[in-house]
Amino acid sequence: MKLHISFGIAFVILVLDLASKYWIESTLEFGQVIPLTSFFNLVLTYNPGAAFSFLSEQSGWQRWFLSGIASSAALLIVYLLNRYKHERLFCLSLSLILGGALGNLYDRITLGHVVDFLDFYIGAYHWPAFNVADSAIFIGAALMIVESFRKDKTEGIQRKIK
């Protein structure tokens, strides 16, 4: 996949993420819940930590620590996108992860927390709220796993042929 296409995908994810966060913050008050279905709400919440609110109770140092990790990951992803541009599914997965990482990085640097608003639940059990960036990261990681199995099968077939 050409580098400009990968960056384009990451940019679309970034724009969708930032626009959705802007919309939700201009629509809801912090903590407000809008039930949409029997398993899904919109809710405005802030996460100063990482996934599943990991490190959210810390004194603030996690903002810069997590920003450093996201920045380093973004640089590594750009390197990998350039190095493995012939691996289309791998590059698609990295592009989704890059766009999501940049969306959450922007929040973390400018706001000190990540804006989350998608709330899925079953009965009284609520999955931790998340956002478009988190969704892109999850889909990118899932595609990367699928690609790894596909690649292993292809390499195994090629070894048997030789």
From TrEMBL:
Its EC number is 3.4.23.36. It comes from the Bacteria. GO terms for molecular function: aspartic-type endopeptidase activity. The active site is at residues 116, 134. Pfam families: Peptidase_A8. GO terms for cellular component: plasma membrane. This is Lipoprotein signal peptidase. It comes from Nitrosomonas ureae. The gene is lspA.
